[in-house]
Amino acid sequence: MSSTLLKGIRVLDLSRMLSGPYCSMFLADHGAEVIKIEGGSGDTSRNNGPYRADDPGHDWAGYFVSLNRGKKSIRLDLKSPEGKAAFRRLAATADVVLENFRPGVMDRLELSYESLAEANPRLVYAAIRGFGDPRTGASPYADWPSYDVVAQAMGGLMAMTGPDADTPTKVGPGIGDIFAGMMMSFGILAALREAEATGKGRFVDVAMYDAMISMCERMVYLHDMTGQVAGPEGNGHPLLAPFGLFPAADGQVALGIVDDSFWQKLTAIMNRPDLGTDARFSTRAGRSAHAGEINRVVSGWTATHSKADLTGLLGGQVPFGPLNTVADITADPHVAARQMLARIPHPEPGHAPWTVAANPLRFAGQAARPLPAPPRLGEHDALLDTLNDRAPLDEDARRDLRRAFGQFATGVTVLTTRQEDGTPRGFTANSFTSVSLDPPLLLVCLAKTAHSCDVFAQAPHFAVNILSDSQKEISGLFASRSTEKFSGTHWHPGSHDLPLINDALATFACARHKLVDAGDHLILIGRVLNHAVTEGKPLGFHNGAYFDLGLENRLADAATKDTNGVIAAVLAEGERILLEETPDGTLTVPKSPARDNTVAGFVRHMDSRGLTARLDHLYAVFQNSQTGAHSIVYHGTVSGAAPEGMRYHDLAALPLDQVANDTERSMLARYQREYRHGSFGIYHGTERSGIVHSIADHTEYTV
Fold first, then answer.
1. Residue 38 CB coordination number (10 Å)
2. Same structural domain for residues 603 and 530?
3. Where are the membrane-spanning stretches (predicted)?
């Protein structure tokens, strides 16, 4: 009936009536968050009926209930500046915008795909139109309005349907709308897959006229190959016999005899072996050439039996089925077994549920979920104030998150979430990796063999807790399968009720963004909703042992003392880097004075220049291959006005050509790249080559 396969996809649905709502119904049924954007009077289908006797206010039209189950409703006046601004804010958080207006409507509202994509490049913009959009092919009928009957007539379907050429017949259901909506649901998913891979969405449209031509594909190749203009086929088939509706004593039945083997079975059941051995009828082509005679013989036999008798004789033997009315369908055991009649709960107490046609897609391993109720007009207007979780960060927030991502070179983390029943779950991981600042994303790896893998793979939210060097016991506890993890740990509920570890150095509350298969692991990517950072040293784990990742001052001091090395730092002030200017005009990173060549000496030296330096973690350790001297470079921050002989440089425009030392120039170029992602590695090697130990892997690096 429904699944959660599309959970996490947000669709803004501006469409009306049938084609667009049918498309978004498929998406909502399988977990997408579909938000209907409605005007003051709502979707036209709210007023189309029919209505039940217990609905005197005509609030719940059957047309609307069936197509809009499980969706949300927000009222916006897109002609007002306030409504346009609100829609833009929503579109910045959306994966898909769907509409079925005529071309140019959204452009005139200043809400075109191009303008929305400027703020949200990943946006997929889906348009269902009668005759397509000029962006993909300008039709001479582009401005014509269209409904189902127009699409059926112009697309050839009605010309092929009916008893004879004088009686073209419209197909009962609104297939001109429905098929276009189905095609668009595929187009949306295809474009979403591209957007996930490239970060760029696109405009996709389908014309109802085009969809009907695609549905009637047989008429096209017949005309090409034979010159025939396909006409009404009644209830038969132009190339096959017996194929169509045949009379029964109490109704009609359908037969579809295509293969010769089925013809042999049918003639045996009819007790007409002579038909089975007649050379005129032994092949598909022969039966087609004698269709009139065959259909008369088969009709004469079926008319002597009831539908029930024919079901007993032919069911499971040849392609056969009785002609069902909706009353027959509701009593059919197949329909019950496949749960094709869904019960939608009424949102008002004391009212019986509605019965609608269920979604026909079934996915093995996905438990069917009941279909939720449709929305009242404007029921979710309050979402306008809470849908900013996925909005782009402003510059201050980006800077704050970048600093939080860069606070830790690596470290032990505990991932936490809640099961559907609210039970907290968690396990220990060795690291996380920042992926992006716009949108703010991080990733963690889940071993498929991990006890909690399925829980985290399905969770809508999770948290990353970075442990301090005093939390080794917590790391060990969450690395086990103990059922006492949370009872033995001090924690508190945070955003979205996520369990957050007390006294962790940092916590990142995330909404699930994407899950990617990676061999024996799953990569879980989360969108950071909020975060908190405190001072301290993170807990590290390497080769089976814990270690501190803070400043190892005594080791650094000993290394520089024994080898006449130097302490230096890449110091950031916002998005600027502090560099020293040498007498010959070249640039270098700040270094400790020779007379006080220690970590503390470096900090004192900066203080004497009116600067406050805070060293976070090691950034590079390299040894001069000729002299043996060590250069130990830290990552840190600095505040204060640049004194004489020093200058702040914009990180995006570092004058690397003025950095005389090859090693420092290469190191600063690496810093530029890593800063964009908010994740820093530690270089170890000589002045010419070595390894960058990053959070997620070890990358070979040559100066």
1. 20
2. no
3. none
Catalytic residues, by residue number, are 177
Give which of 48, 68, 676 is closest to 372, Cα–Cα: 68
- Domain span at 287: 243-326
Per-residue pLDDT tens digits for 110-130: 999 999 999 999 999 999 999
**Distance, CA of 642 to CA of 356 (rounded, Å):** 71
Rounded CA separation 637/615 (Å):
7
Report whether pLDDT(435) > 90.
no
CB 514 within 8 A of CB 446: no
SS3 state at 546: strand
Cis peptide before 50 (omega within 30 of 0): yes
Q: What is the pLDDT of residues 514-566, one digit of tens each?
A: 888 888 888 899 999 989 988 777 776 544 555 554 445 544 554 455 446 78
What CATH number is associated with residue 122? 3.40.50.10540
User: Using the 8-state DSSP alphabet, how is residue 537 labeled?
Assistant: -
pLDDT classification of 680: cutoffs 50, 70, 90: low
According to the model, what pLDDT value does residue 703 have?
35
Buried b or exposed e, range 466-496, using 16+ CB within 10 angstroms:
bbbbebeebbebbbeeeeebbeebebeebbb
Please indicate, yes or no, if residue 235 is contained in any of the structural domains.
no
H or E element at residue 114: helix 113-119
Query: Does 381 reside within a domain?
Result: no
Element spanning 563, H or E: helix 553-563
Handedness of CA 463, 469, 474, 480 (dihedral sign): positive
pLDDT of residue 80: 97
Adjacent-strand bridge partners of 606: none
User: Based on the domain organization, do 670 and 579 belong to the same domain?
Assistant: yes
Mean pLDDT of the chain: 87
Q: Is the pLDDT of residue 569 over 70?
A: yes
Planar angle of CA 452, 408, 482, nearest 5 degrees: 25
Our count of domains for the chain comes to 4
pLDDT in tens, 609-654: 999 998 877 777 776 655 556 678 888 889 999 999 999 999 889 9
Beta bridge partners of 571: 578, 636
Q: What is the CATH number of the domain that holds 438?
A: 2.30.110.10
Q: What is the helix (H) or strand (E) element at residue 395, kind and residue range?
A: helix 395-406
CATH of the domain at 566: 3.90.79.10
Maximum CA extent, the chain: 114
Cα–Cα separations (whole angstroms), residue 145 to 107, 113, 150: 17, 21, 9
* Rounded CA Rg of the chain: 34
Please give the Cα distance from 15 to 37 (Å, whole number). Answer: 8
Last residue of a domain, one of 545, 562, 581: 545
Tokens 């259909």 correspond to 295
CA dihedral 450, 454, 457, 463 (to 10 degrees): -70
Kindly provide the residue ranges of all beta strands, DSSP E only, lying in 287-335, ordered along the sequence. 320-322
Cβ neighbours around 104 below 10 Å, total:
13
Residues 84 and 141 grouped into a single domain = yes
What is the distance in angstroms between the CA of the first residue and the CA of the last residue of the chain?
59
